[in-house]
Task: structure prediction
Amino acid sequence: MIWIDPPYEVDKVSIISVEERVEKQARYIRQGAGAEHYAIINFVIEPCQGHIGFKNEALIQDDLRGNKEWEQLFPILICYIYDALKKFILYQYNERNLAIGNFMFKLMSLKIHPGDSKLMDFGIATHIGLREIFQNKEADE
Result:
């Protein structure tokens, strides 16, 4: 479990969060690159009062075991998704004046296409999934 410090003072803002568990599959398919150029992540967002947390439960997919490149890239990929979560929170606050918080992000699984999936694609998929979850949320009063 990794805790994320929010970019705002918790006691001075109205925080936007989730009220119940949300399961999400987020996809990013690079335009013009064909159906094989994609990133798919499955994650869960759960309420977590007073904190923002990140937990990885994803394992490297079976068909990539023994693939040295992806076995080495997999921990970096997890860090990339964690960083995308932090950037999403920071962007929402700095650019949109929205304080996103009080939730746990659990990364459940990834679908990697060897040779075509890029780290950046998973960051974009993370942002897309979070945006879909939080776009219509109201701040807790």
